[in-house]
Design a protein that fits this description.
By secondary structure, this protein is an alpha/beta fold. The protein has a single domain, classed as Ribonuclease Z/Hydroxyacylglutathione hydrolase-like (Metallo-beta-lactamase, Chain A), CATH 3.60.15.10. The chain has nine helices and twelve strands. Strands 1-2-3-4-5-6-7 form a seven-stranded mixed sheet. A five-stranded mixed sheet has the order 8-9-10-11-12, with helices on one face. α6 packs across α8 and α7 crosses α8. Bound molecules: zinc ion. Zinc ion (ZN) binds next to loops.
């Protein structure tokens, strides 16, 4: 738990790869507001313990920045809190988490904890904007309007404290993953994030940073989309394109094999098919080939 503004905290889980996301806490006069609930019980219990060590105020509100399991899996540990999210987040979470065998294949190290998960849906939803007035604090929620990382992303901004929690609209030094996203829109959402008057940016994955770190990620998305377009036009398969694209500095970012789902998603975008789900088994097999061994991959 790191204090990033007066009584504003980031809970950073080191390394930021598959399933390892960040969370946040805002302590107001009349209660605390938590941002994201992490994934499996062992993680969320540690988060809740860290919150209790930080404040005695009850957690009145939990914000989910999007529906992915590594941000909502722990919702049930915030009993009594109002859970706030975008309409798209609630809709995407309502059918439940992905099937157990798929999760266990994606993230084998958490396999024994996945059967313990229960979906708890947000109880208050919003469209594009919402302001939470917690005591004298203002917490501004914003949804990009269209799918970026997912259909229901939200950023959480404290204008007075100049702190921005981006959810998975920002990944710092971990390869961003767009398997349910829209890279063209994600670039625009990242541009909007770069317009915030924020000194500290808490990404969904990876270390704390500032706008320069978000810009790195944005530039990755721009590179992938531009290079994917050339190869799409040349009739190259997504997997060949993923192998062919030179990632430069991004090759050293964690989970570089996410280039494949990102290229697959760009191809869907070019075809106007981002409303269709991705072929997940094909994606996983391709990522395993790119990585050279079966392993764990994704944030779901
Ligand atoms: Zn995510």
């Amino acid at each position: 738990m790191v204090e990033v503004g007066p009584k504003v905290f980031a809970y950073v889980q080191a390394t930021g790869e598959t399933g390892i996301s960040n969370a946040g806490l805002v302590v107001a006069e009349d209660g605390a507001v938590a941002i994201d609930a992490l994934m499996v019980p062992s993680m969320t219990r540690k988060l809740v313990a860290a919150i209790k060590k930080t404040t005695r105020k009850p957690i009145g509100t939990l914000i989910n920045t999007h529906h992915h399991l590594d941000h909502t899996g722990g919702n049930r540990f915030f009993r009594g809190a109002t859970i706030v999210a975008t309409e798209g987040c609630r809709e995407a979470l309502a059918p439940g988490f992905p099937p157990l065998p798929l999760l266990q294949r994606f993230m084998p190290r958490f396999a024994t904890e996945f059967p313990l998960l229960k979906v708890v849906l947000p109880t208050v939803t919003f469209g594009d904007r919402l302001v939470i007035h917690a005591g004298t604090r203002e917490i501004h929620l914003w949804h990009p309007g269209r799918a970026a990382h997912t259909v229901g992303d939200a950023t959480v901004f404290l204008p007075k404290e100049r702190v921005l929690f981006t959810g998975d609209i920002a990944f710092h030094y971990v390869t961003p993953l767009a398997f349910q996203g829209h890279i063209g829109n994600w670039i625009k959402a990242a541009d909007r994030v770069l317009g915030y008057e924020a000194d500290v940016i808490v990404p969904g994955h990876g270390p704390l940073g500032a706008k320069k770190d978000v810009k790195h990620m944005r530039d990755y998305l721009v590179l992938v989309r531009r290079e994917a377009r050339k190869r799409f036009d040349a009739g190259m398969s997504p997997e060949d394109a993923a192998r062919d694209i030179k990632l430069g500095v991004y090759a050293s970012w964690r989970e570089a094999e996410r280039i494949l789902p990102n290229v697959m998603r760009c191809y869907q975008e070019f075809r106007g098919e981002t409303h269709l789900p991705m072929d997940l088994p094909r994606m996983l097999e391709g990522m395993e080939r790119l990585r050279g061994r079966p392993s764990e991959h994704t944030c779901v």
